[in-house]
């Protein structure tokens, strides 16, 4: 019996003609294909040395590969056969530090130009279905009091509380704003600012009619926004309506909602079996519309109250109504769907937890700078880098890898090893024989070749 878990070898330095991140090369190649680096370069003045757009793209690729600080760019720099001339960590540091508020707005506009082209290529984003946006905020712990813009949060932690707006169809972080840890989740100004930034990222055929004050007849494609209880105010929903954007927001517990549930709790004619996202009946759960039992004066015309009840379970979150048998949860919406369908639509807001988790494993939990503008630029890189990965999954991958988490992509795709050879004046990358995802990566390169 052989109990050894590693082969006996002699380890030496000085190896060449080998690379370790072929998958990241494919990711960088997609950035080139869609013109990301070139577009970002337009936000910077011409300088000697490394192109600043390319520097930022390499930073995003580094983040996708699991990097967390500027120094991690050196892993790409050691492989010029794949990534060409990569800037040093100090150049990346200076580039990010050079991004002020004006330049950050320019970078967002550049990213929007590229994003519109990607949306036109993807079957997920074309068509006539409503575009659904999700608003949410999250806490990011920072273990230093020397970073500008940080503050204590309600969980007795310390750091930032960024606000995000995600596209439900793709999982992209369309917009993000860096806020101190004590920023309130229900700040109407912050939510509207992020929402408007997100709308500005979308193709014109979608955004037309969705600026504040636009006439509803200008709308060419419907849009809806979802938010948790932090967004459940009549004033915020009125602002959504002023942008011709539909809404679905979690209801807060108050006397009126409790009275409505109390009046309906024993009226079984109101309650319909709830269903899962796949359309299967959820055992013990039911949905009812209680619009006629509440006063919606001041809410946008057509607002409805939908309530779901489900068997009480250990660890259940706060209920809208005190009960020893059920947990009650509800939302306000102006969508015309049947109550059960409206409930399914609103529950899908939980996708934001997946999106934020992906960001936190891709650089969001590490803000390497002390000044606020630089950390805002870092947040932009984290979000756009994660979006670049989503674009790659949408345009170049199929099957399980098209929906895989960052850790899976790193282990199975991004860090694919290979040998580099020269033949007939061409550089050839030969993936390690027996690598399980070799076929997936080869197909991804075939898809890349079709993007013009």
Description:
- The protein has two domains: 18-102 and 368-449, no CATH class; 129-356, Transposase Inhibitor Protein From Tn5, Chain A, domain 1 (Alpha-Beta Complex), CATH 3.90.350.10.
- The termini are far apart.
- The model has no long low-confidence stretch (mean pLDDT 92).
- The chain has helices at residues 22-33, 36-41, 52-64, 74-77, 80-83, 89-97, 101-121, 188-200, 204-207, 234-242, 255-264, 339-347, 351-364, 372-396, 406-414, 438-449; strands spanning 18-19, 131-137, 140-141, 151-152, 158-160, 163-167, 173-177, 223-227, 246-250, 272-275, 281-289, 304-311, 326-333, 418-423, 426-431.
- The radius of gyration is 25 Å and the shape is globular.
- Helices cover 38% and strands 17% of the residues.
- It is α+β, with helices and mostly antiparallel strands and 452 residues long.
- A nine-stranded mixed β-sheet has the order 7-6-2-8-9-13-12-11-10, sandwiched between helices.
- Helix 3 packs across helix 6 (89-97).
């Amino acid at each position: 019996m052989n109990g050894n878990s590693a082969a006996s070898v002699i380890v030496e330095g000085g190896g060449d003609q080998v690379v370790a991140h072929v998958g990241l090369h494919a990711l960088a190649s997609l950035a080139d294909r869609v013109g990301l680096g070139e577009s970002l370069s337009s936000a910077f003045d011409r300088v000697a040395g490394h192109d600043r757009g390319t520097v930022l793209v390499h930073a995003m690729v580094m983040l996708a590969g699991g990097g967390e600080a500027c120094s991690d760019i050196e892993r790409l720099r050691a492989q010029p056969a794949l990534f060409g001339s990569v800037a040093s960590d100090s150049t990346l540091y200076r580039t990010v530090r050079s991004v002020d508020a004006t330049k950050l707005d320019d970078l967002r506009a550049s990213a929007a130009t590229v994003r519109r082209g990607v949306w036109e290529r993807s079957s997920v984003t074309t068509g006539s279905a409503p575009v659904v946006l999700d608003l949410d905020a999250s806490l990011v712990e920072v273990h230093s009091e020397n970073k500008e813009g940080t503050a204590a949060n309600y969980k007795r932690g310390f750091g930032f509380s960024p606000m995000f707006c995600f596209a439900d169809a793709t999982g992209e972080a369309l917009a993000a704003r860096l806020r101190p840890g004590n920023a309130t989740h229900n700040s109407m100004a912050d939510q509207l600012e992020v929402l408007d930034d997100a709308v500005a990222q979308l193709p014109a055929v979608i955004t037309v009619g969705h600026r504040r004050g636009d006439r509803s007849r200008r709308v060419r494609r419907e849009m809806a926004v979802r938010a948790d209880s932090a967004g459940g105010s009549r004033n915020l929903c009125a602002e959504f309506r002023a942008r011709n954007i539909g809404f679905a927001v979690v209801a807060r517990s108050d006397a009126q909602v409790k009275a409505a549930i109390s009046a309906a709790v024993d009226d079984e004619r109101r309650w319909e079996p709830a269903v899962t996202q796949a359309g299967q009946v959820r055992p013990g759960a039911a949905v009812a519309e209680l619009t006629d039992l509440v006063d919606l004066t001041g809410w946008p015309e057509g607002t409805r109250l939908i309530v779901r009840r489900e068997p009480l379970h250990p660890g259940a979150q706060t209920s809208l109504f005190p009960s020893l048998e059920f947990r009650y949860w509800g939302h306000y919406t102006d969508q015309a769907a049947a109550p059960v369908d409206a409930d399914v639509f609103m529950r899908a807001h939980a996708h934001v937890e997946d999106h934020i988790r992906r960001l936190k494993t891709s650089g969001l939990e590490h803000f390497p700078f002390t000044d606020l503008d630089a950390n805002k630029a870092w947040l932009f890189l984290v979000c756009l880098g994660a979006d670049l990965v989503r674009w790659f999954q949408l345009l170049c991958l199929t099957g399980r890898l098209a929906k895989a988490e960052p850790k899976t992509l790193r282990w199975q795709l991004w860090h694919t090893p290979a040998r580099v050879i020269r033949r007939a004046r061409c550089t050839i990358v030969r993936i390690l024989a027996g690598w399980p995802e070799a076929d997936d990566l080869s197909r991804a390169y075939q898809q890349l070749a079709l993007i013009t």
